[in-house]
Amino acid sequence: MTDVTAPRALPVDERIDLERRVPGRGGFNGRLLRIELLRVLRNKRTLIFTMLLPVVFYVAFGVPQSGRWPGTNFNPKSYEMISFALYGALAASCAIGASVAVERAQGWSRQLRLTPLTGPAYIGVKVLTALIAAALPVLVVFVIGASTGASMSTGAWPLTFVLSWLAGGLFASLGLFVGYLVPSENAMQILGPGISLLAFAGGIFYPLAVMSHTMQNVASFTPMWGLSQIARYPLLGGSFNVMWLVSGVVWIGLFAAGAVWRFRSDTSRV
């Protein structure tokens, strides 16, 4: 008769060791960030496009400006410089965020699910990568603006640069959300015209002060209204509206939460 021995139960300590442990910071690490940055730098088409488009817009609409707009007392070239630098950072960060649509199609996001990397940590790596890349179009537009007549106070230059960079770069969460929401072939088709429409409605391309009262009310409910106002505040001055900050935090938070939700839903099939 065959002697059948019951399997030995593992001690508690050994069973714990077999479980997948989530490392500190949810798996966020410098190596993953480096990999993401190298992937962005290799994509020369996206880099050239996101730097060239805001420069073309500024040269076409900002450089010809002279004097003052009706009812304003600031340099219009500086206004346009900040606006198109912000738009460049916005386009770059959204494009990098939306690249997850391609990663999904290639199975990369499902592969990541096999690792201890958490959703928030992955979103954090993507947003930080987008922030670094978003600094490039801002720098290029500011350099061209300074050489073509844009002027403001000495202290306003670094402030508007940093604020334009951060305000645009944080919209990587929008690109991530759309990238996880739609198929890879539709992500940029939706984001391209979408961010242009939101930029116009939010007062990035044209001063809200010269818009109708109705358009100003509509703009205040758009995602880019608050952060664009903050980016131009050092130039425009006046009283700071706390609702600008509230609007920016709420919209960015919603996009980030949506991106984490879609990441978890997309990879839960592994």
TrEMBL record:
Biological process, per Gene Ontology:
response to antibiotic
State a single Gene Ontology molecular function.
ABC-type transporter activity
Q: What membrane topology does the UniProt entry give?
A: Multi-pass membrane protein
Q: What InterPro entries is this protein classified in?
A: ABC2_TM, ABC_2_transport, T7SS_ABC-Transporter
Principal cellular location given in the protein's record: membrane
The answer to whether keyword Transmembrane applies is yes
Q: Name one Pfam family in it.
A: ABC2_membrane
Q: Provide the transmembrane region boundaries.
A: 46-64, 84-102, 123-144, 156-182, 194-215, 242-261
Coiled coil, from the record: none
PANTHER family associated with the record:
TRANSPORT PERMEASE YVFS-RELATED
List the protein's name. Answer: ABC transporter permease
Question: What does the organism's lineage look like at the top?
Answer: Bacteria, Bacillati, Actinomycetota, Actinomycetes, Micrococcales
